[in-house]
Amino acid sequence: MDKNFEELCYSCRTGDMDNVDRLISTGVNVNSVDKFDNSPLFLASLCGHEGVVKLLLQRGAVCDRDRYEGARCIYGALTDAIRDTLLSYDISKAVDVKQPFATHISSMYNDEGFLKRDISFRVSNGQLFTAHRFLLCARSNILAEKMVTEWADHEIVSIEVRPDIFEFFLKFLYLIPILHQIEPGQYEELIELSSKFNIELLPEFLDKARHIADPTEKSRLMSDYQYKFTEVARSQLLVFVNNCILRSTVDLVDSERRAFSLVNCLAYPDIQLAVKNRNGSTQIYPCHLAVLNRAEYFRAMFINDFKEKVTYVKAKHFTGKYNSVIPELTLPNCEFEVAEIILRYLYSDNTDIPWMYAVDVLLLADILLEDRLKTIASTIITQSKEFIQQHNVFDVLYLSWEIGVERLEQFAAKFIAIHLQELYNDPEIKRAIVLSSQRISLRQETDTIELVDDIRYYLLRKYSFEPDDVELFENQDDLEYLKQVGYLEYRKDMEMVDNILADLELDV
User: Fold this and answer.
1) Going by CATH, does the domain composed of 100-242 fall within 3.30.710.10?
2) Where are the membrane-spanning stretches (predicted)?
3) What is the pTM assigned to this prediction?
């Protein structure tokens, strides 16, 4: 069984919604089952994690009351709220509309503002449809080939197809849920058009759907395929980033090659992203504003009064027909590997972040105002054994305070509690407690210190105690029993905390 799927099941049992989100972004099949025939949705439902249940449903998990798996989820739901959520979820609706990646790609189709479309299609009745070359190239190898051959010098392409069929076709490429809108009489032409351009899965779905009369069965089919469509698109855009963007990067100093690359770049960029690393080298990445604006940092530059942060570079248009001015953005200084992780995330929702770059990704995501990526990067840190072996836990704690990531703060407090006896003589633990005490505004004598509270909480967890257990043990005289249950070790840890506070003259 896939390791990521095993981890997904575990996170669904424990309610770790951040990690569930990260794992789904790696392409894990949310409708698979483990060796006990438990789906992630069933585990989250059974264990009472309502937030995880909702997230799974939004990401494509199917809960059909007419199927064994769906009925099992509903019957096993721990709370009425979860049961109501499962019962109210209409599988005939598109399951991907709330997924960040699919939502953004769909928004590119509808946004008529500053998101540049660079090719138009004139259909049979003369109606024009506009699109982004780069997206069409990513979604179809045949469309990509036509862009560099017969359509290379065309801003408007004529195509013999009915407008309703082409509209469905184009919306599908932009991940807009259209399956429930297609009428049986439109199936044949849509199959022919999508097969002509080698569009994955759509002809397969339509061929199956036209032989199904039962509305419920057709809804199931739509739900299953909508998830597959999104995963295929993510995979295609990841290939596009790797092959057409990252392979087309040039050094800032190589101005001749830079101008040449804009003319011949198969990414069809409308913006250049400049990145300087710590060695002072600068790379230029050919990118697309339609994708970069997924990060609020970039979006703000173009919709607010921050255009002074954007420089403009004259370059020949990729068609070779006229000169164009291509804006250039500068990403905050970082290693090229980190910039490429950010681009893979923005373009394809890829969250494959090596642990050695997790902190840099976290810091850059904070600057980009990309909260979801911050959460995913922090999850990588807390899930990586290698990371904590190479980094000081107190650095993690201070980082969590600096950029406001509660998950990291809790991770650090838990680590300190588990390893308290090893860290007791480390002067950094006293410094951390003092800094935590200073984070309280207008501190009163009776105020607690958040880090101390967290350490005490995780000490209870370390020994699997409840507060009532401690009160019971304090009145127990049987030392052998107290040693056996772990209370004496717990008491030793608590005395260490009290000693540190006494040395610091902090009364909490």
Assistant:
1) yes
2) none
3) 0.79
